[in-house]
Every structure is written in structure tokens, then in C-alpha cells.
Amino acid sequence: MEDLWVAAALTFAGSAHCAGMCGAFVVAVAAGPPRQRLVRAGEHALLQIGKASSYAFLGALAGVLGAALVGSPALTWAGRVLALLAALALGAAGLSLLGLRSSTGGSGGLASLYARVTGPLLSARPTGFPLVVGLVMGLLPCPLVYAGLAAAAASGSAARGALMLAGVALGSIPALALVAVSGALVPAAWRRGLARAAGVLLLAVAALTAARGLGRGHSHAGHTAPAAGSEMPAHHHH
Amino acid sequence: LATAVAASPALSAARLPLCGHCGLPVLGQPGGGLVYCCSGCALAHRITGGGAGHGQATGLLMAVGVGAFLAMNVMMLSFVLYSGRGEADRPAGEAWVRWALLVLATPALLLLGAPFLERGLRRLAQRSLDTDALIVLGVLAAFAISVRSVLAGEGPLYLDTAMGILLFVTLGRYLEAAARARATDALAGLASRMPRQARLVAADGLEREVAIEELRVGDRVRVLPGETIPADGVVVQGEAAVTQAEITGEPLPVERRPGDAVSACTVDLDGSLLVEVRRAGADTTIARIVRLVTEARAGRYPLMPLVDRVSAAFVPVVLLLAAATVVGWTILAGPGVGLMNGLCVLLIACPCAIGIATPLASTAATGRAAAAGVLVRSGDAFERLARSRRVFVDKTGTLTRGVPELSGVEPAEGISPDELLACAAALESHSEHPLARTVVAAARARGLELGPVEGFRAVPGRGVEGRVGGRSCRAGSAAFVGRAESEDSAGASFVHLAADGHDLGRLVLRDAPRPTARPALDALLAQGLQVEVLSGDRPGAVAAFLGGWEGVSSAAGLLPEQKLERIAASIARGEVPVMLGDGINDAPALSGASVGVTLESGTDLAREVADVTVLGGDLRRLPWLMGLARATLRTARINLFWAFFYNVVGMAVAVSGHLHPLMGALAMIASSLLVVLHSQRLARYPLPVEGP
Questions:
Q1: Any B CB within 8 A of A105 CB
Q2: Distance in Å, alpha carbon of A159 to nearest chain B alpha carbon
Q3: Mean pLDDT in each 10-residue stretch from start to end of chain B (692 residues)?
Q4: CB pair distance less than 8 Å for A116 and B47
Q5: What's the per-residue H, E or C state across B517-547?
Q6: What is the pTM of this model?
Q7: How far apart, in whole angstroms, are the C-alpha atoms of residue B269 and residue B685?
Q8: Which of B46, B61, B79 to mutate to test the interface with A (most CBs of A within 10 A)?
């Protein structure tokens, strides 16, 4: 369970980013005709459950992959490589929070797929629609998720991977709840400041991970310390 | 027309039903109700609300969404189950987890699998062993084994494999369908371009307005300047310049005099004409084109996609292998073990990545093509482009710019070119004739001063006259300025000029070739493709245009149906022809070809029926696209290889009776990941080199 809390804490630190990116979905779900407070709460819960499902799924997937690499006795170097790759992924996440790394913008096919799925749901609002919107939201490219997936792969366990990503989902809830309650996006200036702080933190964690990866070889690199194939971000784009 | 279509076995072979979403012909049973070429289209059609009500559309999206939610949780829990203990096939002690997985997976199977099950079972019943059949076999086998294991309280669970296949295949089909833009009906727009009324001239000379449906062969109609000619016929009185730009892309108007033929939908530019109707209503050229397009679209024979061809070869082998496994293990260890191992062979045979191997490649390629200014309407066009060895090209408006250009100034002795051009431009600046605009623009481009004109007069079908700089000037046809008719024009038009009865010289106007035409066709030839120019223009003009170009063959004087015949004959030879054209007269050929390519400047109809639209008019994009298409097919092939590779290894293990659920999961993840990463390479395919 420690995996979950550490991931949640790190994500919480960086969740100024969530308020901006996923916040748009939260605002869209919160919009619509007036309805009871309980119904609204239920909708937001479904949104978070959907997102957490996507995250946990990706985490388990990364864990299985990591297990296949790290668990193999023939690949004793795999752990070291994974830890270094993880450090890179974390560093990239930190840099992107600092605004020092621009996004590639995602592939057109993927973006249109997302729009085609979420668009009709957000306008027609059938019962339970936030679940599916959340599911799609959980598959959006996100530096915090990449960092989490890096950790999941390095853990070499599907269970731990799923927990770590569940932690990422959990850590983003307070910021998103704030957006839901205030009904508006957190001012960009605040988010920029908070994101900078989180970026510095992630860079520090990345440095730590790299140091541990080099020092310890393939033994798992600690809970906060991750590793992921550079595959994971790429996979995410699809 | 009927003979043109019937002449080709490929076109007459079948009246295939059209997909209710993308409008492409569907291989399969024609029957009542809407049919779709794939479950992705069926899904997209309902989701995007075509036909179905909005509620139903979002209902279906919710069904798929909830199915995906359940499937992802099943896979996640299954992975956790594997990593919890080394032996996933041993009862985990937590029987409730296994039951929970089954409870989650069953509705997901129904929600995600229904479209595949329905189609796949129908295919199996028809003994048509394609991809859907393989998917259904794999999913049902995995599910059957898992249900037995849960009920028995022991044995392996393959629910994640079943869910993975369904999830990825649904994603792939959806990507495919989303890439296919829904065609808007420009055929209706074409009909609206026809005038509704005609000015019928009775035997006594009285004129009255009638609906064009009432026109009969032999009727005489009056057409005034600026009006659209309402029927095919022959000029009996009057002279006028008539433009066919709308239909053939030919920018140079043609002079029409008594005895000359005119077509419906062409526009009378400057004179009053009396036309005797020869063909009216449904028999006119334009109506025939509409009919040809409709028939060519319905008759376009679909190429069996790569993935289905692979499956068609693979499935029988899988079935035989599974049967042999059942028999072998029944003899060795009894029917129970035999059946289980046989099912294992079936379940591991279906690669999870089978559904995304081609769509991911073509989606990446579509994005890359769009970045280069080439809009590709359906992903499967890449496969057909890649297999094509023959390109047919229209000339007018495609290889040429489709706008007249001043290509020569030929003054008489003692006259400077600028003097000639300035005088012509001064006169023509008062005319609405398309050639006049070109002359004026050319003069302005040279910074020439246009003097005032007095007593301007336009003589329909002949030219213009007026006083320029104190002299009485005429610009127009040779006869108009009193010169002998000039030699064969070979695709050029001339504006002759005279002042006070003295010859000043002439201007030569031409529909100039696009600068990119030659490099584009040369690049196609260099790629080893056959290139043939199909033109409705006169043989002399086509020959002059090509001028002994090595390797490019040509056919001139073709009617729209004759262009289509050429395409049909090519298909009948087993070729995969590509047609590049822009006019309404090219539309039947564009619809009949395996891939129709048009230009942004093309007519609405051409853009609608074509699979590919090249923005900006740079023809070199076509050879570039052919290269991208071949890279895409190569990528799809390698994707399919990786998709099947792990599963073939898995099958060997399954035959031996040692398949482990983790093996299934790893085959699924590894092959899907490789397919995703490998397809990304196409997103970095080099863009065409810009330049003149």
C-alpha cells in the first residue's frame, strides 16, 4: 500500500497540472441542467472511477511488462536499464511541468477518436456518461502518468503497478474536486506557480532514481523510484 | 453506357450492397436493411447519428464505453492475479476473485462482442473464414475454458485474453471508421446546376418558358448570353463563345456557329444562340455522367484487405491444428483434456493485435499525408495505392493549370510587343470574356498603361472593337480582323488585332501545363508505374502537349464513358488502377478506379467521388503518396507478422498442452506494443521536398 500513498503524494504535489488538463473535463461534466447535489457528486465519482480504471489498467500492464523484463534471470541488466529509463521519464515529466519541454501534441487520429467519443456523451449526457468520459480521460497523454508508469514497470509487479497508478488517480482527486466545487478552472497563474514547484520536485526524484539505479543494479529501486520503458509514453499516444 | 459498364466483368460482376456508413461496396450478402463493411462502420454510423436517433447513438457509445471499462478491469485484475503468485492456473484460494472476473467479463463480452459474434458466426456459417471468424473462435474458446475453470473451481482463466482481443479489435475498427469521412452528395448539387427552365421557340417564332423536363428532341430553344444551355443540341442560328470549364476543366472557350454541337450544362458567354435539341433530360451528357458515376461506384470491386487474406489462409490451418490436438490428446489422456487443449489452440491463435495492425498503420499514414497536404478519405486506399502499377491521368485542368495564360505575343512588323499588348488590353478591359481577363492581367503585369476606349462594341462569338488612341481597332478571331484563318492551333487560342484595317499581330493564349506535371509523371515512371494520359481533347492537342514524352502513353478524344471503359478494362486485367482527374467528365473514371485522386481545384463532384484530394495542386504529391502507401503496406505486413508471431509460438505450446494464461497475456501485450511502436515510424515518413 506504500506504493499507493507515495504515488498519490507525488501526484498531489504536481496536481496543479491536473486542474488544468483534466479540469476541462470536470467542468464539462459539472455543466448541464441544474440537478441535485447528490447526483452531481455521483457524476464526479463516476468520472474519477473511470479515470482510475484506465490508470490502474495501464499500471498493471506496465507491471506485467516490467516483470517479464526484470524477472528474467537472463536479463540482470534489465533492472538497471529500466531504472535509468525511469529517471529519464521522471525528468521529462519534471521538465514539462516547468514548461521546458514542449508536447508533441499527440497524434491526430487519437485526438479525433477522443473527440468523437466524448463529444456526443458530453452533449447528450446519458445516464452514467461520466464513467466513459473518465475512461477516455485516463488515456490522455500526461507527464504524471508517464512517471507513474515508469515506477510501475520498475516495480516488476502488476499488483504494485496497479496500486501506484491508482495512487496517481487518488492524488489528482483533491485538485479536481476543487475544480468541481468551484465550478471553474483554477487561475492559470496559480497553476503555473504550483506546476513549477512540482517540476523541481520531480527533477529531484528523477536524480535520486538515476543515482539509485546506477548504485543498486537491478534490485528494485525503491518505491518512489521508477522505471519505465520509453515505450510507455509512446504507447500512451495511441 | 450500358455496354461500357457491361463490357467489364469486374464492373458487371456484382451489384454489391453499399456500406451504410462509408458508402463503400461490401463483400457479402445483399439483403434487406442497411449493411456495413465492418463493425467499426456500423458503430460509427450509429454513434455519429446517421439514420439512428441521437439517444440510440449515445446508447451504443455508452455500451462500448462500459464494455471497455469492464474489460480493462478484467485485464487489470487478471494481471494482478498472475503477479500475485507464480502459478496462475492454480486455484488462487480466492474463489470470489475468479467469480468476480467472470461476472465482470460476461457483460463485457456481450457489450463488445455482439457485433463480431453476429458477423463472425454468419461468416462461419457461410464457411468464409476471415478475420471475424478468427476473432470469434478465439474469444469463444477463451471464454469457454474460463467458464469451465470457474465452475470447476480449478484450471486456467483466459478472460483477459478474450477481453484484450475484443478491446483492441473494437478500437481498430473504430479508428478505421472514424478515418472514413462521410461522403456528401455532390451529385445532387450537379443536378442543381442545370437550368430549370428553357426558352422554347415555337414554329411561329413565339418564345415561352417551359420546364426542361418538357423539352423534346427537335424543339428549338433560345439561349442568351450568360445562360446555361439546357440540353444537348446543335446551333441553328447565332454565334457565341461557349465555355465547358465546368465539365472538362478546359478554360479556353470554344466558338460555336450554326451546325456546331453544344452540350447541356455548358455556358453561353456572349452571344444569343438558337439551339435545336438533340438529346434532352436523362439522355444529356451530364445526366449520363451522373448515371455513370452512380453505377461505377456501386460496381467498384473491393479488394480483399491484407488482414482478411492472411486470415483466410490462417484459419483453416488453425482449425485443422485444433482438431488434430483434440484427437491426439483424446487418445493420450481422454476427451476432457483433448477438448481443453483444442480450445487452447483456438484461443491463442487469434492475435490481439490483429484488429489494430492495419488501422494503426493507415491512421498514422493518413496523418502524415495530411501534413503533406494530401487528404486521404479512407485508410484502405493506401493498400490499393501500394498495389497499383498503373496510373491514368486526365490532361485538361489536371496536367494543365485550367486557366488560360498568355504564352506568346507575336506583333506584325514595325510593332513592338508592348504596343500590341497595350492596345489589345485596352479593348479587352471592357469585355467579360475569360480570355479578355487574361490579356488585361498580362498587360497590367508588365506595367502597361491602358488607354481610354471610345465606342466600344462586343460582337458575340467574334471579338470586340472600339477607338483606341484615335484609331479604329478590332480584337478577336482571324476572320473578324480580316485575316486568313490561321494554322492548327494545337490547344492554343489566338487574339488577332487590327487597327484601321492594318494587321498589328496576334496574342497566343494557352492552358499552360502545371510546372509540377512533368516531374510528377517522371517520378511515377521512375517508380516503375505505367502512366497513361486519358483526354477528352483532340488527338493533335494531346500529342502537342506530350511532345514525344518517353514512357507516357495517351488516348485522346475520349468521352466520360470511354474513360471509364479504360479503367474497367484495366480492372478486368486484374490491375489496380489509379485515376488522377479533376473534371465532372472524369468523375465516372474516378469512381470506377481502384483509387480516385483529384485536386483541390477539381469540381465538387470529382472531390466527392475521389478517395484522395491533393491540396495546392502540386502533382508531385502523387508519387510521394504512392511511396507513403507502399511504406504503409510494408508496415501493415510487418505489423501482422508480429501480431501473428507470438500467437504462432503460443499455438505450438498449446498443441503440447502446456499453455499458460500468462503466455496469452504476454503474447497480447508484446504483439500490441510492437504494432503500436512500429506504426509510429510512419508518422516520421519524410515529407515531400518543397520547391518549384
A1: no
A2: 5
A3: 36 52 56 60 56 54 88 88 57 71 91 83 77 86 90 85 88 72 54 77 87 88 88 90 76 84 85 89 78 72 77 87 91 86 87 84 85 83 93 90 84 88 89 83 88 85 86 87 67 84 87 88 94 87 82 88 91 92 88 90 80 88 95 93 87 85 80 86 83 52
A4: yes
A5: HHHHHHHHHHCCCEEEEECCCCHHHHHHHHC
A6: 0.75
A7: 48
A8: B79
